[in-house]
Structures are given as C-alpha cells and as structure tokens.
C-alpha cells in the first residue's frame, strides 16, 4: 500500500483496528485464554472423535431417563470473557440430575456461609456409589459431602425456607441466575423419579434420625428430586459452570451469583467428589473440577479461564457420561488445562 495515497481517516481506521487486535491478543495473553478459533477447532475435533463411541448405557433406575435418545451428543465451552462455543446437540434440554447439586451448595453458602456446608454436611469423599447408605453408616453420621445423594438432600435441607414452595423458589431462583435464563422442571423426568425414589426417601430418614438433616425428610427429598429434574441445555450448563470459572460472576449477564470467596470451596468438592468413586481417575486424567449427572451432563471448570459442558446420555459404571467425559478430557489434554499443572 502506498501510504501517501491514503487519507488520514483511513489511517485512523487501520490504526484503530490494529490496536483492537493487539488489545484482544493482550487480553487473551492476560487470561491465558486460547483464541475462539482454536477453541472452536478443538471442540469440533473432540466431537467428531467421540461421536461414534456407543459404549455405556442410559441410566434406567429412573425410568424416564432410559427413553432419552442415546445418540445425542453436545459440547459447549464458555470463556470468562463471555464467548460461547458449541458443537452438536447443544440445544436439547436434559435433566441436570447431580449437576444441580453444585448450585444448591452455592446457594447454601451464599445464604449461610461456607461453614454451614463444612460443619453440617462435611466435605469428605466416600469412594462409594453416589446413593450409598454404607457411606453414611461408616462415617460420623453426617452426609459425607454435598454431591453424594445424602449430602445433596442435606444441602437442600439447609436452604433457608419457610415452606416447601419457598425452598423450591429459592433453589430455582439461584439456578436461573447462574444460567442467566429461566429454567424449568422437566415434568416427565420429575414424575418418573418421584414415583421411584424410595432409596432417597430412606436416605433422608436415616439422616434425620441421626440429626443430620435439617428439615422435614419427605419435603427435602421431594425438593431434591425436583432440582434433579430441572432441564438444561448443554449451552446453559456451560454458562452455569462459567460463573465458577469467573469468580462467581456470570460472564454473559455480568450478574454476580456467588461471592468469590466461596468459589474455591465449591471447586475443591468438585475435585474430590464430582465423579463419585471415579473422581480419582478423573483428576488423574483430566485434572479439572467437574460434576456429572445421570442425565448425561458433565460440567467442568477451568478456574479463571472457562467452563466446558458435555452432554451424552450413555453412562459408564460409575454413572458418568462416557462421551462427555471423553470429549472434555480430550480438550483438557490438548489445551493442557489441568489445575494440577502441565503434563507436557
Ligand atoms: O438421586 C438420584 O439418584 C438422581 N436424581 C441423581 C443421581 C446422579 O445424577 C448421580 N450422578 N452421576
């Protein structure tokens, strides 16, 4: 280009776009964020690589979950600067199941402080299945941690509420803030689980009997069942996770959902118990705080950088989505995301 023939306006424009690019590169360098293009390329690669993996099986102990089409597979990344990168079936609404437990834990800490969880629920891994009764009996009577079923029901019981409706309104209100959108219960899933959740009702009564459930057992079990039946898309789940990556502020709506000081506590429990009795292998392989649900969702958090959500209904023997974990693990390896340090 012959600069003598370019007017001052053009020069100004060129200079300001160069400046904008430099600014964005600098911002990326500062947050350690890969470019949107890199993330999109890798997300597509991960989706293509694991799309045909048909191993695992839908959960069927909640009958409605067996009917969710097994081929569905979505992957979404939400960065702390609000970029949303999606591949596959990211708009299908599936039940959050145990992914919900993370956000009720957040609500209780926001209302009553982190000690409420630490002292009244406990934060220890069980090494047992998510609905184990043995784990309650073997411990000190507390519910072990907020992500196994006993701990999640105990966490629901700690929500400050004057009635079942009030308890529910607080929980869904909290989830809506994290998602930045209005979420609602998938009625068929709720009905199916409510008709078959005898084991969870038993767990609630055991805890109540030993003084480790802090509200009426059947009310808590029912509200817990409802929270597990909340429908989210893969995109919405990733946005919810990105709040934790972004120190408690929703990067899309910019609304604060959780005080920053509580975020590390949530991530700590996600690390030790997010995959239940598969948490050790997940920490080893992916190195990311994450939470799974038997609906096929997984949400993983890369602190200060991004959240990655995956959705695919077939589960492994621990109750964790096969394809979602493969895809997230692939991204974690390719981008060297482990919170424990580089393996390269
Ligand atoms: O209470 C249950 O069994 C289900 N609503 C949730 C279990 C679950 O998602 C375990 N996670 N992988």
Provide an overview of this structure.
By secondary structure, the chain is an alpha+beta fold. The protein has helices at 8-31, 36-50, 63-66, 100-112, 114-120, 134-138, 149-158, 164-179, 187-196, 198-209, 217-228, 234-245, 263-273, 279-285, 322-335, and strands spanning 74-79, 84-88, 94-95, 231-232, 290-292, 297-302, 306-311. 50% of the residues lie in helices and 9% in strands. The longest helix is centred in the first third of the chain and has 24 residues, at 8-31. It is globular and about 55 Å long. The termini are far apart. The model is unreliable at 1-27 (pLDDT under 50). 6-diazenyl-5-OXO-L-norleucine binds at residues 97-98, 130-131, 149, 193, 200, 228, 292-294, 319-320.
